[in-house]
From TrEMBL:
This is 2-isopropylmalate synthase. Its cofactor is Mn(2+). The lineage of its organism: Bacteria, Bacillati, Bacillota, Bacilli, Bacillales. Keywords: Acyltransferase, Amino-acid biosynthesis, Branched-chain amino acid biosynthesis, Cytoplasm, Leucine biosynthesis, Manganese, Metal-binding, Transferase. It comes from Bhargavaea cecembensis DSE10. Catalyzes the condensation of the acetyl group of acetyl-CoA with 3-methyl-2-oxobutanoate (2-ketoisovalerate) to form 3-carboxy-3-hydroxy-4-methylpentanoate (2-isopropylmalate). The chain holds residues 1 to 385 of 514 of the full protein. Residues 4-266 form the Pyruvate carboxyltransferase domain.
């Protein structure tokens, strides 16, 4: 089965979310958990950005042994030197250098010609290769780059010695069809492309990050990048928990493996939420509080007869406690009776009908029916038996 490397950037792109600031101890704790999760590569920070980030990357590089640790750098010697200072202690030193390649970024942000962008990228890759055995180069805003230029610059960085080439959808603009086509095109056009890993990096501005990442895999990507809980710049990066679970559940379709220890997903998600202070939306795929909660009577009845009716992922798969049948105004008698029995009440049919009617009346007035509410209703009926 084809192996897809998982590149986690929670500690770099994820930390770039507005309002998130992790200190070294917090970064280390997340890094240890990412190692348990089984990510192939973790991007620990941007060493040239601040002494604090450089220190955090150094500590993580010296601690983590089972995942490759990397740091971000622009295409200049100062950034690459700062990254080397932090990463020289790593088991397999890896650097991630990037430069923008789209017309708008080259003209307005970099004020460089396409030729100058090629030259700066090639020089940076060659310089980085003096220190690092593993050099990833990224074409920032790659999905909005003119395809022939993208193929030319990728050809040059591969010749210069890059070991991974990443094509980010930096502003989340691509559709799955667009993004998949870029990978297919590069695979068909760039000489020796099979000597390097091709990587996908998706942002979620139009809500298509997961679909785009999966499209890249279908079209030859060897590595996918993202964050835990989909945190990141603006609308965030792709959520790695979604990608890993989608690839597992739809193995029949994708036929790849990631090496991710799925049982660590819930724990990782909770740790990242707790330390970043960013709550997980209740209906978030895979890790949201409601991902395994069923409220309507028809669904609850189906779940009680056979969980496969409404649950394609089991909570145990991601290390979550259990499925929850939430009692609310849409719930049915079957779930109500089951809960009553779990609470130790086996009522006569007539009393159960009464209790169910009382429960429905209360559910019309109250959004959340608590255990205490149920206890009052059921005890009332038990007394009358
Ligand atoms: O989104 C992006 O383009 C990035 C690069 C730095 C790789 O995060
Ligand atoms: Zn990014």
């Amino acid at each position: 089965m084809r192996k897809i490397d998982i590149f986690d950037t929670t500690l770099r792109d994820g930390e770039q979310s507005a309002g998130i600031n992790l200190n070294t101890a917090e970064k280390l704790e997340i890094a240890r958990q990412l190692e348990r999760l089984g990510v192939t590569v973790m991007e620990a920070g941007f060493p040239a950005a601040s002494p604090g980030d450089q220190d955090a990357v150094r500590k993580i590089a010296g601690t983590v042994k089972n995942s490759i640790v990397t740091g971000l750098a622009r295409c200049n010697q100062k950034d690459i030197d700062a990254a080397w200072e932090a990463l020289r202690v790593a088991e397999q030193p890896h650097i991630h250098i990037f430069l923008a390649t789209s017309p708008i970024h080259m003209a307005y942000k970099l004020k460089k010609t396409p030729e100058e962008v090629i030259e700066a990228s090639v020089e940076a890759v060659k310089y980085a290769k003096k220190f690092f055995p593993l050099v990833q180069w990224s074409a920032e805003d790659g999905s909005r780059t003119e395809p022939d230029f993208l193929a030319r610059i990728v050809t040059e960085v591969v010749k210069a010695g890059a070991t991974t080439v990443n094509i980010p959808d930096t502003v989340g603009y691509a559709t799955p069809q667009d993004y998949g086509a870029i990978f297919k095109f590069l695979k068909e056009t760039v000489p020796n492309i099979d000597r390097v890993k091709l990587s996908a990096h998706c942002h979620d501005d139009l809500g298509m990050a997961t679909a785009n990442t999966l499209a890249a895999i279908e079209n030859g990507a060897d590595q996918v990048e993202g964050t835990i809980n989909a945190i990141g710049e603006r609308a965030g990066n792709v959520g790695l928990e979604e990608v890993a679970v989608a690839l597992h559940i739809r193995k029949d379709h994708y036929n790849v493996e990631t090496g991710i220890n799925l049982k660590e997903i819930k724990r990782t998600s909770q740790l990242v939420s707790q330390l970043t202070g960013v709550a997980i939306q209740p209906n978030k795929a895979v890790t949201g509080k409601n991902a395994f909660a069923h409220e309507s009577g028809i669904h609850q009845d189906g779940m009680l007869k056979n969980p496969n009716t409404y649950e394609i992922i089991t909570p145990e798969l991601i290390g979550d406690a259990h499925t929850e049948l939430v009692l609310g105004k849409h719930s049915g008698r079957h779930a109500f009776k089951t809960r009553a029995e779990e609470m130790g009440f086996t009522l006569e049919p007539e009393r159960l009908n009464e209790a169910f009617a009382e429960f429905k009346k209360l559910a019309d007035r109250k959004k959340v029916i608590t255990e205490a509410d149920l206890l009052v209703i059921l005890t009332d009926q038990q007394i009358q038996e």
